[in-house]
């Protein structure tokens, strides 16, 4: 038998080139990942038989938010509906094959091990519930990180209900422990500076990306993190930043506050997408060279980056004051 | 010996001890600013090159600087100094000798900062001899030994030019001939930051140098009379503080980060700059001189990186650029009361006279130090079949390639070795 992933890899490479929007690009990623999962599942079924129970496979990270760039690593987890030890063994084997397949196809392994091939991200629903509870109680740097990661979980295979039940568990905890939102906030407040105090852009000064701005760290993340926090506060289950924006803005208060940031973010996503098409490696995807920008474009970029910072401050004050629309 | 001569001797001896202790500062500064694999080598070479410098300075260096019957370049007496007293000095001659020797050692340590992480051990050995005999004494003779620049009234109280610029010019010649370290520049021309392995060492090194500088500058009064050394020490401390503050602020404003290595270099730049002017300027001017030095050092560090001159410890910026600025600064700020040598500066009605003399001194001294060092190193390059260790040796580190053992053996032991032991 040849490499079962080869054909899919070729299809992926040719189709990703043709994507004209972020939505199109992410719909291709979703199709590829879904197909890759099925191929892995077939391989495991042949070796170990059918799945012992129902399950849900979900993406987190940029995949979970539907905001993947052309080149992106893999971040995912799995929920299965059985408490038998055999089920865990089976799904871990499946997880390993899934990760291997995605890596072959062009999604490098996650350096932080957020993959359903690890026992942390492959659990029965009951075990997930216990784990989430533990993360909520622990309040350590890592546990808060994991909760924020889990919050971007989006179903690819299976049913969304189990994910929603687990997210509702977080909402309920916050309802009784409103201070917890502050902990989540603190975890995301550190942002790479993109604009200096004289409103000058601050590109990388060393390394292969010298002269380029890190669009992910300095640009996208302040928006993504702020809107995620507001979505948690408002108990929203959607995962994409733009749909979180839209849902929040259905409320009068947020429409007023978020409107300019929504526009900035849309623009930033477009800039990031266009720039990422030129990238050849995962490392290059997020760096925008300032050399290629006109004076006006630089000015706009500054406004967008400063907007992210302002949005973070707005989010901070909304959460700290416990403002309710 | 009268009590004043005795007191002067004690004071200058204390200064000499402080200046020799600056070698400890250089060890920590240089080792902390470079990688672990070269740490033992850097520490060790600082000690033995100071040893070489001591012997060469005793044999010929001192005589070239302060000897009589001189020519345009050097004096020609007092070689192999045996400890005799010279008439007319207000302190013990042997104390004065040790103090001067300590300065030559500092200049050599500065020069070697430009060789870091890639030069062969033999290069250090030979260049120590030639720099201490042929480069440093000539500039020191011109300015301090009664040479042509001192006749013009050049103001360089403790050696912004003599010690720092001379060392930095030799370092510049070395960095040009040695070429950048492996991994410093990418194929597309972008620059990588090769981080030092221990910021605490670097900071401690700077602080030891800072304290040592009281020996360097205040000790250069050579006398305790009138307690003038206290004023010199005050100016020295103010400039160092101002340099640290302005460098930190400029790195934060221009680069978005309050960068620790830049701040440390700012403190050193303030010290280097005030070295020439500490006895000639008011306290407010010392602050201004330090502030400007701290800002200059930030942009200078960026500049050398950009023009592909790999200066691992930033000595060209700290000792070269700040040395030039410090020497010129007396041309602006020297006051009529304090300018016991030369004239008052531009801001005190002295016109451009002193500034011109300072500029002439910087230019000729810098040019001499650069050209002679370059020629020496170029000849050595030919004779030694290259100044630089092989690519493999540079990769494994100079601790192992030049000395056979790591400065941090446990850190480099492979798991295999650990299991086997």
Quick recap of the structure?
Chain A: It holds the Pfam family DUF294. Chain A: GO terms for molecular function: [protein-PII] uridylyltransferase activity. Chain A is α+β, with helices and mostly antiparallel strands and 325 residues long.
Descriptive overview:
The complex is a heterodimer of chains A (325) and B (421). Chain A is α+β, with helices and mostly antiparallel strands and 325 residues long. Chain A folds into 2 domains: 6-177, Beta Polymerase, domain 2 (2-Layer Sandwich); 184-321. Chain A contains 12 helices and 6 strands. In chain A, the strands form 2 sheets. Chain A has a 4-stranded mixed sheet. Chain A has a two-stranded antiparallel sheet with strand order 5-6. In chain A, helix 8 (180-188) runs antiparallel to helix 9 (215-233) and helix 10 (241-248) runs antiparallel to helix 11 (252-276). Chain B is mainly α and 421 residues long. The A-B interface holds A 193, 195-198, 200, 202, 205-211 and B 186, 188, 190-193, 252-257, 302.
Secondary structure: elements and pairs:
The complex is a heterodimer of chains A (325) and B (421).
Chain A: H1 6-18, H2 22-48, E1 55-59, H3 61-64, E2 76-80, H4 85-105, E3 122-124, H5 125-138, H6 141-150, E4 154-157, H7 161-176, H8 180-188, E5 212-214, H9 215-233, H10 241-248, H11 252-276, E6 287-289, H12 295-321
Parallel strand pairs in A: 2-3
Antiparallel strand pairs in A: 1-2, 1-4, 5-6
Helix pairs in contact in A: 1-2, 2-4, 5-6, 5-7, 8-9, 9-10, 9-11, 9-12, 10-11, 11-12
Chain B: H1 3-32, H2 39-66, H3 93-113, H4 121-143, H5 148-151, H6 160-178, H7 199-217, H8 228-255, H9 260-277, H10 283-306, H11 315-333, H12 353-383, H13 391-396, H14 398-403, H15 409-412, H16 415-420
Helix pairs in contact in B: 1-2, 1-3, 1-7, 2-3, 2-4, 3-4, 3-6, 4-6, 4-12, 6-11, 6-12, 7-8, 7-9, 8-9, 8-10, 9-10, 9-11, 10-11, 11-12
